[in-house]
Fold this protein.
Amino acid sequence: MKVLVVGSGGREHALCWRLAQSPQVEKVWCAPGNPGTSECATNVTIRADDISALADFAAQFGVDLTIVGPEAPLVAGIVDLFRKRGLRIFGPTASAARIESSKGFAKNLMVEAGIPTAAYRRCESRRDAEDYCQQRGAPLVLKADGLAAGKGVVVCYNSEEIRQGLIHLYDVIKTDTILVEELLIGPEASFFVATDGEQIVPIGSAHDYKRVGEGNTGPNTGGMGAVSPTPFLTSGDEAVVVETIVQPLLAVMRSHGTPFSGFLYVGLMLPEGKLPHVIEFNARFGDPECQVLMRRIQGDLFSLLYDLADGATAQPLPLSSKTAVAVVQASAGYPETSRSGDQILGLQRAEQVKGVAVFHAGTAIDKVGHVVTNGGRVLAVTAEGNTLEEACDRVYEACEKISFAGRVMRSDIGGPNNS
């Protein structure tokens, strides 16, 4: 079987790495890929948002299954186009992907389905947002309604943070509409399923570390690290999430004529003594959560996704009982800016550490063949261990073997302070 993975980040490297291990897969392409994906797939120089060219490639080369990593192609309608052309693809249609591209749309679905979530108000102008925030007061959470690459959420504990948050959303992110939500207190976790709209196959749990600084300080990022499984969710909690969140969401989306298929990311807040509350839905795998989950999957991911794409009966995937940890290494200036062209040293030495795999994201090959930085989040160094402590020891041993100028990295991934 031939597989095409769409995207160029660490998530896509991890997907290619896992799919290439399937006994059914003879060929993996990644479009556009990165230097890391070239080690387990063949890179194709097609942008992830050039959905017409991707469909042409899949048709020309007889791709049996396409898997979409990032959200932008999903929102642009890549699944709709592929299905129209009779090409097998795993992911949600553009209308279903609105659960990520519009937080207001997702909130409306949650309210209709009776899914526990924070109280909110949708503000369609800056003046409305300023007036409502002044009236409501801190603490509260501000969220850009649309896509913001993980940087569209601001938690505000006082009036000055509200003022700065509104400046960030309206002047930096340049959103038109925001949501103002109540602040929920508790640990955060993520739960992932693969679905065809009716069948629900749990993929596992994780928690990530969103802020750039130690102790979860500084601005939000796309994610500076992750742990799987998360200790914040028990197997009983996961069953509750499926029953009270995933099933009602899929049912209400079917009733609207927009059934959801693909990877569903359920971002959760776990208030003490209450049911898990949804912070957000994403229409794809998280990053770097995907990297740690791909380390723990033991079954044939390709077979699962192929069956779900066809609406056939799918079998659950066994997960390793080990713990996986990912630590993101970012470029100088991240997340405000990023620097490219800095040579990365020590990659091979890092992967010689037991239980370690390094997934590339913002990397490139320079004119003389060196691996260099090429974006914000550069690498996700991952490790497995029999315990969280063992996984953390291994991942940081590997991290210290890697170096590049201006590296940004948290040293507390695996610790309790993720929210």
Remarks:
- The chain has a mean pLDDT of 95.
- The first helix runs from residue 10 to 19.
- The first strand starts at residue 2 and ends at 7.
- Residues 8 and 34 are 6 Å apart (CA to CA).
